[in-house]
Design a protein that fits this description.
716 residues; OB fold (Dihydrolipoamide Acetyltransferase, E2P); Rossmann fold; six-stranded parallel beta sheet; 38% helix; globular; binds adenosine-5'-diphosphate; binds magnesium ion
């Protein structure tokens, strides 16, 4: 992003107080919003744009409560009147060729001098319409106003995210002044790349993200800022990854693990075998492994990790497995200590609940130099990161669901695992292109195959016309003893913003898209109870107290509730094998990966299970996406399709918990990105630039801006 340049002593690092009208109070308000310098201010990007260029006649103003832009001529001298209390009101009439409107402002008496009879203004506000005999009465209260000259006003007006003490007017004025004062920021992107990728210049981008000249200019500005962010992030990740690492090269061969595999009551799947081969190859090298093992819940990642741990142990070294919760750690311990016990290898469990005495014993066996005494495998929670824990020969660290650890824990883990081989397991399918940006040169093993015998959840996409059949299906499922999940995207009806603003998210090549209304969970739960009087229907949502949630979940688990209507709270860790029908309302609102997680809630037991995606969105995009769900059962293909269809912005937004945290992503603009190819091209460019110039010697400005970024991202 912009770099410091001098211009009359003021530069991008100057405090906001250099701007006119920014005193200590405003500066404090800005500081609260995280804005201290002019650069911060220029990077405070609008959350949306008002489309004031869409000028309509009063008679054609929006009737849906949204704001309309109208151009009116003042017809009467503004009158001021005092209302009760200290309220003053200024009123006048103004007209266009379709009619006239009453314009009203509150507590702005000075406006009487502004609106002279005959002057022309562009107003932007909600036009109230009241039918009267033979026509329509219009009234606009407190609209935005700008003197009108044809062609002289911008179409789009930025709407900034605000915080206390700041107004839209403040931001617009201060941003404009900052742009004037700082002149042109230094562009660190190599010009060759900029031209090849047909990106606009940085000054153009910064100017247009705040004051778009046109729709096209805005799209170009957005594209450039997002590209830069991906590009710099990818460069910095790759450069960090390139730092030389040295570790232990394990001597154990892959064949030596066969006694363990022989103890398993099943054959490994092809995907599991492949993952083990990849891991074993990594562990033979002195460059410590940085590998992620990704696969849907239940695909069998644990046994792959066990194979890796065995390689470490047979080479005379130690392995640690760390899980985010005690429950998970215990579960791993129970499974693995049994398995390793069969081939005479000891495991220990170290969690917060381990007694002090037991901890001391484990600590001493972990730090023992003598291989006879030394504990070869330890499984635990972040308790493994406590100061007292010293390993004498740690060479492999495995983490399960690493994104669920806290930031400090991950930092401590990085510290502890320096020079060791690292294997992390995740159930969130991350598309390769995104993983490359997020993790630089980390390697990925994918388990894209389920153990045999797992049932497939048949999936259907239907619309409102199927409502009665859907109800019948619920009845049938319940009468056969099965249970049903119904998921709705939101609790209340239509919380959608619809105020005439063009959402930044909706600006793309395809223009603006209107979504069908939302099914409200509360109302819907009532409707369902009424339609299914013989069944027990319960309603679960995020606003309930946690005891209430638990009570409902418990009665669903023991079969007292037939139909559970809920928001997405059920996504996390619910296991009810008896549930065999999943209905998702407004399915078009969910990310595909999210739908995949939801679908994973059924098909866990013996009952044949179904997933029904209900959507009235007839748009081709929605149909296509839902068809992907109907036809794909593997998390990876779904995640790829999700990323391709919606772009990294929406993808990241709906997978925030899993993906954002795992990469330590702190993107500002990427959230707005609806174009997955931008991600890919930025990553490719970053990698090929580094291949040609590993230390970026020829690009000093780029290097400097990376070192700044490095300071911000190095915590991981
Ligand atoms: P996850 O990938 O979610 O961690 P687990 O490793 O816990 O999955 O495995 C889920 C279940 O599948 C376990 O009970 C495990 O024993 C079993 N399993 C793993 N691999 C296979 C296989 N190849 N064939 C049959 N069952 C398997
Ligand atoms: Mg697991």
């Amino acid at each position: 992003m912009p770099k410091t340049t001098k211009s009359g002593g003021v530069n991008l690092t100057s405090p906001v107080t250099v701007l006119s009208g920014v005193g200590p109070a405003k500066a404090a308000a800005y500081a609260k919003a995280g804005i201290e310098t002019l650069e911060d201010l220029l990077l405070h990007i609008p959350r949306a744009y008002e489309n004031r260029g869409d000028i309509r006649l009063l008679s054609e103003s929006r009737a849906d409560g949204g704001k309309t832009a109208v151009v009116l001529t003042v017809a009467t001298t503004p009158q001021a009147a005092k209302l009760k209390g200290r309220l003053t009101i200024v009123k006048f009439r103004a007209f266009d060729e379709s009619g006239s409107a009453e314009i009203v402002f509150f507590n702005m008496p000075y406006l009487r001098q502004v609106f002279t009879v005959g002057s022309e203004w562009r107003f932007f506000g909600v036009v109230e319409r009241t039918p009267i005999r033979g026509g329509m009465k219009y009234k606009i209260s407190s609209p935005a106003y700008e003197p009108y000259t044809e062609g002289a006003l911008p179409d789009f007006t930025a709407v900034y995210p605000l915080s206390e003490g700041l107004t839209q007017k403040n931001l617009a004025a201060h941003v404009a002044e900052a742009l004037r004062l700082c002149g042109s920021p230094v562009d660190v992107l190599p010009d060759e790349i900029r031209r090849r990728r047909e990106l606009c210049t940085l000054p153009f981008a910064v100017r247009n993200i705040h004051n778009p000249e046109s729709y096209v200019a805005l799209a170009a500005a957005k594209k450039r800022l997002i590209y830069d962010e991906f590009f710099l992030f990818s460069l910095s990740m790759s450069m960090q990854g390139k730092k030389k690492r040295e570790g232990h090269a394990f001597s154990c061969k892959k064949q030596n693990i066969s006694p363990l595999l022989a103890e398993l009551p099943y054959e490994l799947t092809g995907a599991q075998k492949r993952a083990i081969t990849e891991i074993a190859a990594d562990m033979k090298s002195e460059t410590p492994m940085r590998r992620m093992l990704i696969g849907d819940v239940g695909c069998g990642k644990t046994v792959v990790a066990a194979a890796a741990m065995l390689i470490a142990v047979l080479s005379g070294r130690q392995a640690a497995l760390m899980a985010p919760t005690e429950i998970l750690a215990r579960q791993h311990y129970e499974d693995l200590s049994e398995l390793f016990g069969k081939i005479g290898i000891r495991c220990e469990l170290l969690i917060g609940a381990t007694t002090a005495k037991e901890k001391r014993r484990i600590y001493s066996t972990l730090s023992a130099e003598d291989p006879e005494i030394r504990t070869p495998i330890v499984i635990g929670t972040h308790a493994l990161l406590s100061e007292g824990v010293q390993f004498s020969a740690l060479s492999l660290v495995v983490t399960d669901e690493q994104h669920r650890f806290g930031v400090n824990q991950r930092a401590a883990l990085t510290e502890k695992s320096k020079g060791t081989h690292l294997l992390s397991m995740s159930a969130t399918p991350i598309p390769r292109s995104l993983a490359l940006v997020m993790y630089g040169d980390i390697d990925i093993s994918r388990i894209n195959e389920m153990p045999p015998g797992r049932q497939r959840v048949d999936t259907f996409v239907v619309d409102e016309n199927y409502r009665s059949r859907l109800i019948a299906f619920i009845k049938k499922t319940a009468s056969e003893g099965g249970q049903v999940y119904v998921v709705c995207p939101s609790i209340e009806e239509n919380p959608d913003r619809d105020s005439g603003e063009v959402d930044l998210y909706d600006i793309g090549d395809s223009g603006i898209y209107k979504r069908p209304p939302l099914k409200a969970a509360i109302k819907y739960a009532d409707e369902l109870s009424a339609a299914l009087p013989e069944l027990s229907v319960a309603f679960l949502h995020g606003k309930l107290k946690s005891e209430q949630k638990e009570a409902i979940m418990t009665s669903f688990e023991c079969g007292e509730i037939d139909v559970l209507v809920s928001t997405t709270v059920i996504e996390v860790g619910v296991n009810v094998p008896n549930a065999s029908l999943m209905i998702v309302e407004n399915a078009e609102r969910f990310g595909l990966s999210q739908l995949h997680q939801l679908r994973g809630r059924v098909g866990r037991g013996k009952r044949k299970s179904y997933c029904i995606l209900v959507s009235d969105d007839g748009s081709e995009t929605a149909r296509k996406r839902l068809t992907v769900m109907r036809d794909n059962y593997d998390g990876f293909s779904i995640a790829e399709a999700d990323l391709a269809a919606r772009g990294p912005g929406d993808f990241l937004a709906s997978n925030s918990n899993e993906i954002r945290q795992s990469g330590g992503l702190r993107f500002k603009f990427a959230d707005l990105c609806g174009d997955a190819s931008l991600l890919t091209s930025a990553t490719e460019d970053a990698h090929s630039l580094l291949a040609a110039s590993p230390t970026l010697e020829e690009y000093p400005a780029l290097r400097e801006s990376l070192s700044k970024l490095g300071a911000a991202t190095n915590t991981d």
